[in-house]
Amino acid sequence: MCLVENHPLMSNVDAATELNFLALVLMTLWLYLPGFIANTFAMMWGKWLPKTGYGPWPIDGGRSLKDGNRMLGDGKTWNGLIGGSLTAGLLCVLQLALVGNEFDGAVIFASPIIGSEDAWFSIGNDWVTAYILGSFLGFACLFGDLTGSFFKRRQGLKREGDVSSKAPLLDTLPFAIMVFLWGQLFLGGSLLASSELIYPMLAIIVITPVLHRGFNLIGYAIGWKDVPY
């Protein structure tokens, strides 16, 4: 159901953002969902792939820096980074399958590829475009998570073996900030890069620690995470 009429003189991106603030927050969360839950996919790959005899492969290779602490720690692996990013691409394809690729006015569940016709990730057909977009968002999320882990290690907070230190803000904010920042900087004229989404992004960043905590509690309860944070 459209919340506003289609405006023929407006671009699809402009018209798609003609929503009230709460609806824009929900739409932003929907559009960035592949990046926002890529950590969950990384957890799955980090837990399941080693059970098949492959990995885990720590990104830092077990190396420590001059401060005597690991660069990233055991929790950041290549299987999680690559698997999480590529699975996020599949989620974006699923989103496209659910809502289609056509502009239908301003709706919360908008197509993730609106406005992407001339973007760098528009390659081949819409399905490939959605997959590249989702994988990019997933990688942005996990790169932000790696950044947070790097600074945790510099503070002496460990992630080695069964030891996992808790740092609520560094565990949550870097990935959310990185996803939205990369979206605004690198997604061209697509809907995800619309300046109208900046304030909704800030609102989501504020509530991200609560959302992330909820996802982690679920992951811990079903055995995907070793710790509930």
What do these coordinates show?
- The chain has one domain.
- With 229 residues, it is mostly helical.
- Helices cover 55% and strands 2% of the residues.
- A hairpin with a 2-residue loop joins strand 1 and strand 2.
- Helix 6 (126-154) packs antiparallel against helix 7 (168-186).
- The chain has a two-stranded antiparallel sheet with strand order 1-2.
Along the chain, the helix and strand elements come as HHHHHHEEHH
The low-confidence runs, each spanning 5 or more residues with pLDDT under 50, are 1-10
Fraction of residues in H or I helices: 40-55%
Strand residue content: under 5%
The 3D shape can be described as globular
| Spatial strand arrangement across the major sheet | 1-2
Rg value: 18 Å
Average pLDDT, all residues: 84
Q: What is the number of E strands?
A: 2
Number of helices: 8
Number of domains: 1
Largest sheet: 2 strands, antiparallel
| Alpha-beta classification | mainly alpha
Distance between the termini: 38 Å
